[in-house]
Design brief:
Layout lengths: L4 E3 L4 E2 L21 H8 L10 H11 L1 H15 L7 H13 L4 H16 L6 H17 L7 E3 L5 E6 L6 H14 L4 E6 L6 H12 L2 E3 L7 H12 L6 E6 L7 H17 L6 E7 L5 H13 L3 E5 L9 H8 L4 E5 L7 E3 L2 H8 L6
Parallel strand pairs: 1-3, 4-7, 4-8, 5-6, 5-7, 8-9, 9-10
Antiparallel strand pairs: 1-2, 10-11
Helix pairs in contact: 2-13, 3-4, 4-5, 6-12, 7-8, 9-10
This protein binds guanosine-5'-triphosphate and magnesium ion.
Guanosine-5'-triphosphate (GTP) binds next to helix 7.
């Protein structure tokens, strides 16, 4: 398992070295949220008991089962009983990969290289082709995971700004991420800069209450940049290690809303030099290929430093992970595999391939 964050110049924090104990935050303000919001959030399953790595891996495997069925099980069924690789088999393989959202470019690269190897008589056995497929997928996944861990500044709080289109899972990911930091002994502060959607502030406050983290907020309709400015002001003389800022969902094609993000970012930089240190784009894995254009546009606007890919548990189209790694140079830092607070995983390419191809302990 890779470490998932480190302080500049310090050792990586190992996820599995961290005790499962939740360290109470120094802030103990309690917030009251309306009943319907409490119900909506509390309907979600609570923290799972599972802590060992074997259990965590089998849960990952189980959550990726729809994607595994759409890629690996279909490939197995296609290859079953086949002795040779012919044009028809390659065409069907191409269709499977496209349907699983690996993307046209990725699929063509995979299938063309297989076709060439067959023509050169270097490849004839379908099982060997499956191995090659796995190696190539693994290669694509490794292409962007070099800087997967978060790097926190040596001094002052680590400021994370979370952005993305509507409903992708930003607020939920923030709750899960804040919980990870709290478990690692960090003092976390959440900032409700989604002042656009009614109930967005309450949603974040409920997360804050669940995980024992203070939330700075203002009323719906307030200027998000002002909320952020005041929050950073508030944090100035407190012992805060991590500040995570929630922002309103916005379509990447809406220029004025994208400009607003630039402003929020600028305000952070004025208050804390180099902030935000991390701009995390949340992408819904069920979105399909539109995810790539979302990432490109957000990146052009605010320079995305990392990706969180959510809802991989609910989709057969998890092949998008492969395409994102191939098409973008932005590392996938986290994957969301469910609605529970501990369903945010560090993205580990090797583990992902193992889970996808259903290998290892069950
Ligand atoms: N199955 C599953 N559901 C998820 C995951 N992440 C988030 N969700 C669900 O997706 C829905 C939307 O999540 P939010 O966190 O409110 O999304 P958001 O991006 O903050 O939405 P807006 O603020 O309205 O733009 C909720 O029902 C979440 O429980 C995940 O990894 N898996
Ligand atoms: Mg939200």
């Amino acid at each position: 398992m890779l470490g998932w964050f480190k302080k500049k110049g310090k050792k990586t924090i190992q996820d599995d070295a961290v005790e499962e104990q939740v360290i109470q935050n120094e802030f103990d303000d309690k917030v009251e949220a309306p009943d319907e919001i409490v119900d909506a959030v509390e309907d979600k399953p609570q923290v799972s008991e599972e802590t060992n790595n074997g259990g965590l891996f089998s849960r990952l495997k189980e959550r990726l089962s729809k994607t595994r069925d759409s890629i690996v099980s279909r490939v197995d069924a296609l290859f079953l009983g086949k002795k040779v690789i012919d044009a028809e088999l390659l065409d069907e393989l191409e269709e499977i990969l496209i349907t699983a959202d690996l993307g046209v470019g990725t699929t063509q690269e995979l299938v063309e290289s297989a076709r060439e190897q067959v023509e050169r008589h270097e490849l004839s056995d379908p099982q060997a082709l499956k191995r090659i497929l796995k190696e190539k997928i693994s290669g694509f996944l490794h292409s962007s995971d070099q800087q997967a861990e978060l790097v926190m500044p040596e001094e002052g709080p680590f400021v994370v700004m979370v952005v993305g289109v509507n409903g992708v899972g930003k607020t939920t990911t923030i709750g899960k991420l804040a919980h990870k930091f709290v478990k690692s002994g960090q003092n976390v502060l959440l900032v409700a800069a989604d002042t656009f959607r009614a109930a967005a502030v309450e949603q974040l406050k409920i997360w804050g209450e669940r995980i024992g983290v203070h939330v700075v907020s203002q009323q719906t309709g307030a200027d998000p940049s002002a909320v952020v400015f005041d929050a950073l002001d508030y944090a100035e003389n407190k012992d805060v290690d991590v500040i995570i800022v929630d922002t309103a969902g916005r379509l990447h094609t809406k220029v004025n809303l994208m400009e607003e993000l630039k402003k929020i970012k600028r305000v952070m930089g004025k208050k804390i030099p180099d902030a935000p240190h991390e701009i995390l784009l949340v992408i819904d894995a069920t979105t399909g290929q539109n995810a790539i254009s979302q990432a490109r546009t957000f990146n052009e606007t605010v320079d995305i430093t990392g990706l969180a890919l959510t809802k991989l548990d609910g989709t057969a189209k998890g092949g998008i992970v492969v395409n994102i790694c191939r098409e973008l140079t932005i590392p996938i830092r986290f994957i969301g595999i469910g609605e529970q607070v501990d369903d945010l995983r560090d993205f580990d390419a090797d583990e992902f391939v193992k889970a996808l191809f259903a290998e290892g302990e069950s």
